[in-house]
Design a protein that fits this description.
Layout: E1 3-5, E2 15-17, E3 24-26, E4 34-42, E5 48-59, E6 66-75, E7 97-103, E8 106-113, E9 120-128, E10 138-145, H1 154-160, E11 173-182, E12 192-195, H2 196-201, E13 205-206, E14 219-220, E15 225-228, E16 241-250, H3 260-272, H4 274-287, E17 294-300, E18 304-305, E19 310-314, E20 317-323, E21 330-335, E22 340-350
Antiparallel strand pairs: 1-2, 3-11, 4-5, 5-10, 5-11, 6-9, 6-11, 7-8, 7-10, 12-22, 13-15, 14-22, 15-21, 16-20, 16-22, 17-18, 17-21, 19-20
Amino acid sequence: MTTTLLTGPATELDEVIVPLSPPIEVFGGQAAALQVADQFHRGKQILGRFERSGLVGFKVVTRGRWLRVKVALALDETSFPGWHLDVRGQAARLPQRLIQVRAQGRLRQCVLLKGGPGIKSGQAVFDLMPEEVPDDGLVCVELLDIAEGRGVSPEVRAAVAESVMEGGTAGLRVDSVAFEEVPEPRAVQQGEELDAARCELLSLISSGGLANLNRRGGRTIRSGLFVVNPVPLGVFGSGGRLTVRLGSRADLSTGRPATARDRALMRRALRRVGGEARRLRHATREALCTAAPTVAQIMSVQDGVLNLPTRSTSGNTLELDLPAPLTSPMLVQAACRPGAIPTLVSVAWTP
């Protein structure tokens, strides 16, 4: 931590906080430039945890340039309500969480993180224009549950009320916040296609968080929800059109909580009876090219239900052709026939 003593009439105990000079990444909650912490418990090996919805504020030198902000979020076994009171919880059994990531008072992206064993990580990436950062350099990053605050459509809140955790910011971990100066963004002319895991790593897609940040390939969407986020101009998925490819796979789970011993016994039984039957049914649908998932509706987090995009089904794949979101995240509700789970395969981008 670097500090500078004041001169003149100040006392020796007064210090000037040296602001962060990008590019820089903050990993610990004791950093002097972390000036504001509301409902936030500072950490040592991580930035800290939210007790409930709140914000963190950093003093940053911007020099009149665009500022790219990357917020690394995670859930683990300590991410449950009341964790700071030393109350033991069952974080692995809690529902998934849908979190708003705001900066300077504006909604930037949404992050969907699912419960379960291990650590689930997600990332929000957005740009701040020079005029959005005040003269004192204070950059405020706010995390809210989807049910809180203004500017979220009542239709979205009603649609996710039964499928996401209430008070989803409880125990939410912030591993780091990074700041980077970028040139004034410009649109690019070359499109490409990325698999679902890499789209999630880039924060274009949020479908429950990644247990392995090096993972490649498709993503299972057991809850039937995923988010398509606005991303900074000039990177994959910014502006233009997106083609989202969805598939399906057989559901071999029983859908009820169980002890470790119960799970082991059920796994054996499922392999022999139930799981094999579901696998065969799904294989039959695939052979008949009837295993493609469906999309019930697509909603703007700010504006509510949108007109369904152009859709095409080819064999067992559903393709959604939709405009890349510019300001508001979009929530997609997908479903499959009984005994199957929708999967997110890839996203193709046309600038």
